[in-house]
Amino acid sequence: MSSSSSSAPPRALKIGIIGFGPFAQFLVETMLKQGHSIRATSRSDYSEQCARLGIPFIRDMHEFLQSDNEVILLCTSILSLSEVVKSIPFQCLKQPTLFADVLSVKEYPRDVLQQALPPDSDLLCTHPMFGPESGKNGWKGLTFMYEKVRIRNEAICSSFLQIFSSEGCRMLEMTCEEHDKLAARSQFLTHTIGRVLAEMHIEPTPIDTKGFEKLFQVKESTVKDSFDLFSGLFTHNRFARQQLKNFEIAFENVKQKLLNRMNE
């Protein structure tokens, strides 16, 4: 595990985005400010959003792959990744290309892409540990995790990573496995607690403690994300199942301690 940062401006890249939902749009705003050339494709129609940003929206995947992308960034949902990758006509690529993803789980996209990508294409697995809300005032000090799974063109990979390091991100290199282990204990557990609180319909009261206010913030932030994301964090992170089991055991232990004390 290592961390690094750089203030050098990134070289302008030709970047193709597959999947153009809110998170992709959030990333692209900074990429455009840095001078990168962007084009997007998606199964949904994002032509209006692309027009507003001043970038082409290419509906046809064949045309998209033939547009000389140096980097293709996958910004799909976790649950749709496999289907999207299967639909990509990789034979249309004009040149060896760096494929990168920004999914919140890492072993799963690594395995899917390793099986599907042409042998001459590079693979970088990443997870920006922030989003439109936490990154709205800049990315300085926010964590960007990555693993160089298969990199031969170091120049392109370095230029892509500089998109984030030049904004002041805390660059953290670790394996996809280590990421998923840690994410199950942090991100997935946070989402689980937030969803449980949402099921309880907790709301602010006139006598809230600071602790409750923080719990309410956890509930509010997690339900802003789709249930598909939460489902993906569970389904496609093999360490999440054990964390859910640990949560259940811990809850039962606390409950039993309370009942034992009451009976005393």
Report on the structure:
By secondary structure, the protein is an alpha/beta fold. It has two domains: 2-174, 3-Layer(aba) Sandwich (Rossmann fold); 179-263, no CATH class. Helix content is 47%, strand content 15%. The protein is built from ten helices and eight strands. An eight-stranded mixed beta sheet has the order 1-8-7-6-5-4-2-3, sandwiched between helices. Helix 6 links the parallel strand 7 (143-150) and strand 8 (170-173). Helix 7 packs across helix 8 (210-224) and helix 7 crosses helix 10. It is elongated, with a radius of gyration of 21 Å. The model is unreliable at 2-6 (pLDDT under 50).
Q: Sheet with the most strands?
A: 8 strands, mixed
Spatial order of the strands forming the largest sheet: 1-8-7-6-5-4-2-3
- Taking all Cα atoms into account, the compactness measure Rg is 21 Å
The total of beta strands comes to 8
CATH architecture of the largest domain: 3-Layer(aba) Sandwich
Q: How many separate helices?
A: 10
Low-confidence stretches: 2-6
In CATH, what is the class of the largest domain? Alpha Beta
Helix content class: 40-55%
How many domains, in number, for the residues? Answer: 2
Instruction: Give the structural class.
Output: alpha/beta
N to C succession of SSEs: EEHEHHEHEHEEHEHHHH
Termini separation comes to: 49 Å
CATH superfamily of the largest domain: NAD(P)-binding Rossmann-like Domain
Molecular shape: elongated
**What is the typical, i.e. mean, pLDDT?**
95
